[in-house]
Design a protein that fits this description.
- This protein is an alpha/beta fold.
- The chain is built from 6 helices and 6 strands.
- The protein has a 6-stranded parallel sheet with strand order 3-4-2-1-5-6, sandwiched between helices.
């Protein structure tokens, strides 16, 4: 599909992995592995369209309170996804509290952006309060390298940001996909872009 107008920066909240697994009588933690393939498909779709920048929720500091089996699996899924998109040429930055034991050591090198392709901001062990604390402690958001977001797409039917880059999302339009994240199809992105192109973005003016 050809779009006359595309957002420069899209944020993605891939929700519903656990519900997807439960619906198939699998352990909740089994859903995370099934979210890797959809993430790679979405990355390739954005690359083909020429989207300049994407931000993707991996896991939050709040998520680390889940049972240890789930935490291990979502950390492993995040590592697998990040390493593969880096291999495919993403300009990847992993944004989150790397001083915590919850942050995967395998991703430490990506706390400084690596690569030259589509700009990908991957939120791993991210917390909005941790991000804003940088204003007081360091004089800048800890996500200062992330630009303003035009469109947020959330899977799983939730109608909330759940702490997703609150400063950059201040004027973002939010499109909700009712299907769970592991059931991602490229049509979801196409529908979100078509919806966004119809919005009247006045930025309060």
């Amino acid at each position: 599909m050809h779009h006359k107008r595309l957002p420069k920066h899209i944020g993605f909240i891939p929700d519903g992995n656990r519900r997807w697994a439960q619906a198939r009588e699998l352990p909740k933690e089994a859903g995370y592995e099934h979210g890797i393939g959809p993430g790679l498909a979405l990355f390739e779709a954005c690359s083909r369209l020429g989207i300049e920048e994407v931000s993707v929720y991996g896991f939050t500091q709040d998520n680390t309170r889940r049972p240890s089996a789930q935490a291990r699996q979502f950390r492993a899924a995040c590592v697998a996804f990040a390493q593969e998109i880096a291999r495919r040429g993403a300009a990847l930055a992993v944004i989150g509290d790397a001083s915590s034991s919850q942050f995967p050591a395998e991703l430490a090198a990506f706390t400084q952006r690596q690569g030259e392709g589509i700009k990908v901001n991957f939120l791993v062990n991210y917390g909005w309060q941790w991000d804003l604390q940088g204003l007081r402690d360091e004089g800048a958001l800890r996500s200062a390298d992330v630009s303003r977001i035009d469109l947020v797409v959330r899977w799983g039917g939730g109608r909330r940001l759940s702490g997703f880059l609150p400063v950059q999302s201040v004027y973002a339009d939010i499109h909700v996909v009712d299907e769970w994240w592991p059931d991602y199809r490229d049509e979801h992105l196409e529908q979100a872009l078509a919806w966004w192109s119809r919005q009247d973005r006045t930025f309060g003016g």
